[in-house]
Amino acid sequence: MSQLETAMAIIMKTFDKYSGADSNKGSLNKSELKTLMETEFPGFLKSAKNQDEVDNLMKNLDQNGDSEVDFEEFIILIAAFTCACHDYSSKK
């Protein structure tokens, strides 16, 4: 597999790992999203001032209003973080 194919496979596997904690394996509830963020993006939560920021993230990602983050909504998070990191690194 190419590097990009490998990266895509890792993203899918990571989502599946955390979304499988409850009976709905197709989405992340708030607890699963928080665990994913704490483990995979520890710097983000360290910079978050309070729990409200995590709640706001969940609300902003949950575009269909079902109180969960599905894979498509999760990909928006990954894309946003990737863009932010790219913008930051290109300014250095």
UniProtKB/TrEMBL annotation:
GO terms for cellular component: cytoplasm; extracellular exosome. It comes from the Eukaryota. Keywords: Calcium, Metal-binding, Repeat. Residues 49-84 form the EF-hand domain. One of its GO terms (molecular function) is calcium ion binding. PROSITE patterns: EF_HAND_2, S100_CABP. Gene3D superfamilies: EF-hand (1.10.238.10). The keyword Translocase does not apply. SUPFAM superfamilies: EF-hand. PANTHER family: PROTEIN S100-A1-RELATED, S100 CALCIUM-BINDING PROTEIN. This is Protein S100-P-like. It comes from Acipenser oxyrinchus oxyrinchus.
